[in-house]
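ok trying this again, last paste got cut off
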Amino acid sequence: MNGAARGPLGLVLLGATGSIGASTLDVVARHADRYALQALTAHTSADPLLELCRRHRPRRAVLSGCAEDKALRARFAEAGCELLFGAGALEEVAAAPGCDAVMAAIVGAAGLPATLAAARAGKRLLLANKEALVMAGPLFMRAVREAGATLLPIDSEHNAVFQCLPQHGGAATLRGVRRILLTASGGPFRATPLEQLHDVTPQQACAHPNWVMGRKISVDSATMMNKGLEVIEARWLFGLPAEAIEVVIHPQSIVHSLVEYVDGSVIAQLSNPDMRVPIAHALGFPDRIESGARALDLGAVGQLTFERPDLARFPCLQLAYSAILAGGTAPAVLNAANEVAVESFLAGRLRFTAIGQVIEESLARVAGGSAEAIEGVLDADARARRAAAQCISRLLGQAA
């Protein structure tokens, strides 16, 4: 899409105060003639959002976790920005007529309704919220097809796959593809003795060796649940069965994913670990625009290594594959139980090694259902959260 030929692209950024939001705003600022910010959103971070609005001058802002506040509204108005409140406002700005493209960067299940609203409105959707596909893959992809939305992945792994696939008419195809290989860094505990994982602290789990990410995603990387969620996401994005999507550990985080073809060829996408690379690709597609990322120097990297994941070390990865095979709302249960378990771990209540235990028990306890309607998905999400909380309470009682 050539922004210069058709005027600036109207962009809504859902989740502006997170790490993806910061990287997106950095890329957008480098190409001010191509993009017009329509709205920035945050949950409750009023002061950081206000500062972003002063700097980037969007037309509107949303605080989705806050009730109406006249004083806050006045402060944003002074910055030339209309402030909206509540979760419903996310859907409003995502589907608004002045919005051409939506960067969906809200972490977790909270981002699903607005992301789905953007798809149903036929927007160009830059998807960094993997939970939309994990929780409601069939529903979400149907909405994209029926509304004629354009879906571009932002996760570095899926964006890499997209870049490695053949393109036909501006869309990726699976012509001649045998399998996808998603790379994983292995996180901070790839080589930690298994007996030491029991005492891992939140600070240690959040110290990712290669990427700068939020706390929840950093823990998901340490457990490799992040990669499990990405396998589910890839299944819906690219239409491949789970057995054709593999995970390989690549500690350097230079090769972001690979696509193997039936003739034995393997095509990979490489770059330094910087989220501005996939963001710039999706913002500019099909053009290439400057991202601000440091150029890759393979001589300085020296070597690229790969290994198979150890499922005894990373049981969450196997649980994700099990959820795919179970189908229906099982992935939504997996995601919800993981969010509850990770929150408890970050609060210092749950041991790192119990995260997978909570997820496994929740999957066993919550009956499956159809993921074809949003009501069923959200019901499964709620039941899974209750089951996970009960499991955590039981584990804490045993430890007391």
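PB: full thing came through this time. DSSP finds 17 helices and 13 strands in the chain.
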